[in-house]
Description:
Blueprint: H1 7-14, H2 18-25, H3 33-45, H4 50-54, E1 64-69, H5 75-90, E2 94-99, H6 104-116, E3 121-124, H7 134-141, E4 146-149, E5 160-163, H8 165-178, E6 184-189, H9 194-209, E7 219-222, H10 227-243, E8 250-253, H11 256-268, E9 278-282, E10 296-299, H12 302-317, E11 328-331, E12 334-336
Parallel strand pairs: 1-2, 1-3, 3-4, 4-5, 5-11, 6-7, 6-8, 8-9, 9-10
Antiparallel strand pairs: 10-12
Helix pairs in contact: 1-2, 2-3, 2-7, 5-12, 8-9, 10-11
Amino acid sequence: MNNSLTLKDIAKALNLSISTISKSLNDSHEISIDTKKMVLEYAQKQHYSPNRLAKGLKEGKSRSIGVVVCSLDNNVIAQMLDGIDKFSTDKSYQIIIMQSKESPIQETACIELLYAGGVDGILISPACETVDFSYLQSLQDSGLPVVLFDRLSDQIETHKVGADNFKGAYDATIHLIKNGYKNIAHLNTNTILSIATERVNGYKQALADSNIPFRPELLRSCDYSDTQKLNADLEESIKYYMTLENKPDAIFTAADQISTKCLVLLNKLGFSIPGDIALIGFTNTDLAEAFSPSLSTVHQPAFEIGQLAAQKLISLIERKNHAPEFETIMLETNIKARSSSDFKTVN
């Protein structure tokens, strides 16, 4: 198998579009017999994707699903994968999991390998910097079912399953306000992901609805692509907040790793929680209860997101000759209030 050869390479060599190459390899009725023959002969000559070609491009299924995630080192993603695996296994499909490591280039390589391996469909939670969905779109156009989960995008039309991030952020901010906190900082990721935008907007809306002015200096972003950068950005942000004349009395964090690392850093820097500063954040870690103090969280229905995403993908794989009506499904989050956001004490 030629792992270095891509659909783009074949398209360039034959002066055809990527979509035409994909459709030819999938034996699409939209492509002429002569074109399909030319593409197949070239692909075989270059030893491209023998597993898929060995299937004879028949209508039969491999009963396998490709899953592409940002990282396996993430509580929410791990729980989503459990949901995907449970539903897929119940329906007699196996799953093949690959990591993009937040790299769009690696993400494309993962998708190509899964496609070459003959998966029946792909579930993907896109990398934080992915802006170009044209390759994924070309595979979808050629007949490969694709479903987005967790991180959703308007760049591709398909089923999408995620959490209601706006409402989760709104509820977390309101929780802090009701507990007496008014100067609420927000730590988010430096990504273009819709989940980041939705969480910022939920935070801002909660402030507005509570007649609390939004203070731009309390909104900071952290580099999410690398653990060392994330730690450095978090420490810098916390030190910056605590040097402000009008310091924040609470922090709302918008991502799993930011939430847990923020608690550890605040303790390390000697700040009392919630005495000096309260904390609540998005995370599904089982350790939230065991932290000192226990961490208030926005809990996402991760298992259910994975389960429903798998259900939607398998429904596309097994559909009988009719165009699907795509849905975007946002499941509710819930607040788990613990010690880190207890009622503010007035000295």
